[in-house]
Amino acid sequence: MSLLKLDNVSFGYSSTKTVLDGVSLDIQPGDSIGLVGESGSGKSTLLRLLLGLTRPNSGSISFKGAALDPRNAAFMRAYRRQVQVVFQDPYSSLDPRQTVLSIVAEPLRSLKIAGDHRQMVIDALVSVGLEPDILTRYPHEFSGGQRQRIAIARAIVAGPELLLADEAVSALDLSTRIRIVELLKQLSAKMTLVFVSHDIGVVAALCEKIVILEQGRIVEAGATRPILTNPQHPYTQRLLSSVPRMPA
Ligand SMILES: Nc1ncnc2c1ncn2[C@@H]1O[C@H](COP(=O)(O)OP(=O)(O)O)[C@@H](O)[C@H]1O
Ligand SMILES: [Mg+2]
Hints:
This protein is of the alpha/beta class. It has a single domain (about 5-240), classed as P-loop containing nucleotide triphosphate hydrolases (Rossmann fold), CATH 3.40.50. The chain has ten helices and ten strands. Strands 6-7-8-3-9-10 form a six-stranded mixed sheet, sandwiched between helices. The relative contact order is 0.17.
């Protein structure tokens, strides 16, 4: 069964401008999908719909066959446990007044998850490559890459099935970006990943499938390798021509 399914979803922030136009997408368990498009193509808006922060104007979204209904509090609580997100900016996404322990444990508190939260936080930190002795430290003590690891630890601490990442490596310098992509690749072996990026090169290195979004429409989708070697749509060809060197 599909994990997450979008059927002919359209959305606009206002009635005069369509931001997403008839988007259909079938995310299977275990997929690692890269959602690629230029700035303004509607990637973040699509993630907002997937998170239930916004409702489509038409079309439907379902999770494991059940309609995603932001007004259904019980459904959304269960959904948030299974679907977590990492955003672009590792500086603004972590509360500077909270310790690492408190930050990473936040989903466990808000979702009222039983168990030893401290131990669950330690396990999450270890699985993102951080030392467990940082629990009492604060975000300002860490580099951008370490902060993004903390944000990823927070996203995986409750054991989600689906991890969404919105430009999660775009704010990082090149060497840090490569290491965080490696981390996400490791994690994608254990959970389903939807990775949003304007950078098709990063997506090519990380994702098995690619979805190309142009002005709110999917123009090409499928397995990464054939799309990279033989892009069908001019927009995809253009995105690829801006990448200096593709991985072999
Ligand atoms: N809160 C908002 N209100 C009105 N328009 C918005 C809002 N957020 C985004 N948009 C518009 O929707 C379009 C898609 O934006 P976005 O989803 O952020 O694209 P991307 O993430 O691909 O850069 C853009 O034209 C943008 O200006
Ligand atoms: Mg965006």
